[in-house]
Amino acid sequence: MEILSYLVDGLLLALQPINLGLIVIGVSVGLFIGAMPGLGSVNGVAILLPITFLVPPGSAIIFLAAIYYGAMYGGAISSVTLGIPGASTAVATTFDGRPLALQGRASLALVTAALASFVGGSVANVLFTLFAPPLATLALSFGPPEIFALMLLAFATFVGLGGDDIAKTVFSICIGLVFASIGFDQISGQPRLVLFDISGFLHGIGFIVLAIGVYGIGEMIWTIEQTRGEVTTTTPRMSVAGMISDTREAVRRGWKGTTIGSFLGFFVGVLPAAGATPGSLMAYGVAKLVSKTPREYGKGSPDGVAAPEAANNSASTGAMLPMLTLGIPGSPTTAILLGGMVIWGLVPGPQLFVNETEFVWGLIGSFYISNFAALLINLAFIPLFIWMLRMPFTVLAPMIFVLSIIGGFAATRDMHDIWLIVIFGLGAFFLRKFDYPLAPAVLAIVLGPIAEPTLRQSLLLSSGDPSIFFTRPIAGPITIIALVLIFLPALKFFRRNKSTESS
Amino acid sequence: MFSKRKFMCLAAAATMLAAIPVQAFASDWTPRRPIDFVIMAGPGGGADQIARFIQSVVEKNDLTSRPLVPNNKGGGSGAEALLQLNSARDKDHTLLVTLNSFFTTPLRQEGLGIDIQTFTPVAMMGVDPFVLWVHKDSGITTFEQFVEKVNADDGQFVMGGTGKGQEDSIVIAYMSGAYDLNIKYIPYDGGGAVAKDLAGKQIMATVNNPAEAKGFYENGDFVPLLAFSDERMDAYPDVPTMKEKGQDFSYYNQRAIVGPPGMSEEAAEYYRDLFQTVYESEEWQNYLQSESLSPLPMNAEETREYWTKQVDNHRELLAEIDD
């Protein structure tokens, strides 16, 4: 087993004192960067890139990869405790993590997130170790039509997400798509929908801006309105015995979501262009779709926490695959890592695996170690985060507000985005009052910028013939499954109406 | 974290500093705040890599007392970055890392009201040539075969690029005009995505900077057919140039550092010295070589002349695309 001997070498390299130390520091830093709303792995890696010149390239990338890993774990923390997604990759975690916390089960949610992240990371590491080169070939066979088909599938899994009211779900998706199209039209190369000629709209509406607005500000206003200013505190349990029983429950009620998230997330992560955010949202959609109790989703299902958390970790390892085997970034964070490799004097590309064996396998070895370190560090910090939740809402609400604003500003350093966050927060509150589901809008603003160009590229390729989505060997089956899923609820609805008529 | 009193002290000190006339620093100006290092592209692309590389050289050799803080403003083909520079409040602590959208975006989006001649030239770090690539499985090994194949495909030959009005599309448009080629052009959102789809044979050819295609070239996947440089490139000595084919055309991506309109002469001088040091550093010289950039040293006046020439060139080239 050649691979195994490489892997052992890699693990030994990652376990060298300096590297191990960097992993522990990196994971801890990443955990807090991830937990800080707005700041995600992209910012963390970009900010810390220059300080990696103090160490050899192998150690430098191990450090950055550890930050990346830590951030994936950390994103879940503020999603659960505050209801604001800590990073774009953790938005889906709020859907069920927040309700669990409100029920006083924050520690269950956090333990589930940590375990699912660990399993997701481990599954991805094993798949990466065993199948990297063939998976790279698979990634290359995904052209624009295949990616678009996959995006269609993601939308399809979400049509059912907003509950029974399909019309409102579709409306919400449409709003998200309109927001996604603001800024710049890649195909014609011209700015578009630059509202009121405000230059801030030139960079479009960032996904994180919408997510912080909707889940940070919107959720806060909602809670204030619901409680009518009455001070509410949840008093979550916090004991070793409690955590052990939570672990048992997390395994029992979260294994399905974890399994789905681990495999799906890895696969989506491997495809360049997608990355961990779509991966985690799709995993949530699919886990709900195949669940026997879909109604629990959105109300505090451990599976609903496990699926996106397993997926975002697994996808972030997956995104390293095209980076290392092809020299092509699979996500914004890996794009910056790739830049780092150039700075360190490495040539990214298909030859990297052959020429820089020690570097590549040292990095892969560090994935295993980082993943383990992140689990332990995360579990150790859970009591601290739970303690935060004991604060009365009158203290927590201003804190959430401040964190939302700072986080939103930190990501783009643009006041324009802060005003948008506030506007989105208010908008989200009113939409929620009228029972509009907001998750589909958030999904649309993530997937829209991938779906629209690939749709138009495909149609350019085929000279406007839509059969391109059905005749290609990979795109065809995906498109058909997606269409079936989209029309299934409509069909059910139609049948149900028919049966009520006949009875 | 600052205590309140400390913060007040700092604020007071800052006000006092601001009140001191600029002349006081005339002899040896140094930055007093972190420098906003605006990049005309999103994170991860070619321009971003160069900006971060420059930042890393500065950081590694400890060349400034205040850090360069990379700030990606890729929106609207760099329009956002140009606007940011044009209206920079702190004119002495804002710099822009350019690519050719520096010339094309103000031409294509006249409503922006940007006149690049008002900007302050700081440094020309090098120019990036372009090369025409095909996949090895296409069996094409010369430019003549390429022209033959495009004609045989009669409008079904697909090339990918980074979008209408972008550097590669200008080269492709010129080439198509000169050889009467009918090419189907698919826009992507970055050079990396273009290279990936050529490797996956979703598209048949691309025009890329060597840096973006190098990995695949070294692996034997990509075949270079034609260079759009003035002379044959050192890294690709067997690849003929378009000039050798009898067309008077070459095209480069400008990798330059530019200051906002109204940057003080003292600050401009400081940055010129700074980037001259970066330019001469071993790291940057190695980078120029490994990424096949050509040096094009010029002073501020020469840079302005170069800009005038480039704007005129691009006006003509863009007119050809829009036809």
TrEMBL record, chain A:
Top-level taxon in the UniProt lineage: Bacteria
Coiled-coil ranges (or none): none
Sequence intervals crossing the membrane: 12-33, 45-69, 75-95, 107-132, 138-162, 169-187, 193-218, 263-287, 326-347, 359-387, 393-411, 418-434, 474-494
A Pfam short name: TctA
Domain DUF112, chain residue ranges per copy: 20-443
UniProtKB keywords: Membrane, Transmembrane, Transmembrane helix
Entry keyword Chloroplast: no
Protein name, UniProt field: DUF112 domain-containing protein
UniProtKB/TrEMBL annotation, chain B:
Keyword terms of this UniProt record: Signal
Protein name from the UniProt record: Tripartite tricarboxylate transporter substrate binding protein
Classification via SUPFAM superfamilies: Periplasmic binding protein-like II
Family: Belongs to the UPF0065 (bug) family.
InterPro entries in the cross-refs: BUG, Bug_dom1
Lineage of the species this protein comes from: Bacteria, Pseudomonadati, Pseudomonadota, Alphaproteobacteria, Hyphomicrobiales
Coiled coil: none
Signal peptide: 1-26
